[in-house]
Amino acid sequence: LEMSSLSEKDILVLRLDLTDRSSHEAATNSVLKHFGKIDVLVNNGGRSQRSLFVDTNLDVYSAIIELNYLGTISLTKHVLNHMIQRKKGKIVTVSSVMGIMGAPLASGYCASKHALQGFFNSLRTELTDYPEISIINICPGPVQSKIIQNVFTENLAKSIENSGDQSHKMPTDRCVRLTLVSTANDLKEAWISDHPYLAVCYLWQYAPTWAWWLMNRMGKRRIQNFKSGVDADASYSR
Q: What is the dihedral of CA 9, 15, 18, 20, to 10 degrees?
């Protein structure tokens, strides 16, 4: 659709709080009232984490699950009801390579993304009577965004002091383009990442013993970078 052909009625922006699950039904109904249908839901809300488990309050883990996991499946539930009535639709969820592997400083974030992977892979098996409803999981590696500035830390009141250099990460527009290609082609799962993260995904999938060995070595450097004020992801950059 050419941008020039869009009019005011083609765009609707609603404020949404994923943690306010009681508001999700009304938000879904507002979209349906405006457009008459929902073709695609892109679940893209969430926060990452930068803290060691031994230093982190448990309420941080509760907040991560509440936002990244429960908020996502709550919104999905209301939109899916509509898609089942139409017998058509696409549910695209931005998971992460952290939904495939484990990494230090992100145990809560990894847990929430593993939860999303398990949930949507299970949901897909419940929708076999609806072949035109696609469940699509997108697993990006490091992407240029403000995710680091907004990460959870060891307590809910603390923000990260230094977000580090983001230039080594995948440009945002490339990640978006590959996500759209994956969505258009109904890929069940897409790993969108540069190396070495992409290589680690393959190791984790097909040679986990090697992946655990490698992650122990890379993880030590990741923690050292974090403690010295360098972006933890820099330990994986080329």
A: -120
**Euclidean distance between CA atoms 81 and 156, whole angstroms:** 34
**Catalytic-role residue among 109, 202, 206, 236:** 109
> Where do the structural domains in the chain lie, given as residue ranges?
8-197
Inter-residue contact 137 to 120 (CB < 8 Å): yes
CATH class of 8-197: alpha beta
Q: What pTM was computed for the model?
A: 0.90
CA 124 to chain centre: 18
**CB contact at 8 A, 41 and 92:** yes
What's the rounded mean pLDDT across residues 31-53? 96
Q: What is the pLDDT of residues 118-129, one digit of tens each?
A: 999 999 999 999
Q: List phi, psi (to 5°) of 135.
A: -110, 115
Q: Which residues pair with 190 in a beta bridge?
A: 138
With beta carbons less than 8 A apart as the criterion, state whether 126 and 222 touch.
no
d(CA 107, CA 215): 13
Q: How far apart are CA 72 and CA 19, in angstroms?
A: 9
Active site residue 109: yes
Q: What is d(CA 20, CA 90) in angstroms, rounded to the nearest whole number? A: 23
Q: How far is CA 209 from CA 111, 138, 139, 214, 215, in A?
A: 20, 25, 21, 9, 10
DSSP assignment of 72-90: HHHHHHHHHHHHHHHT-EE
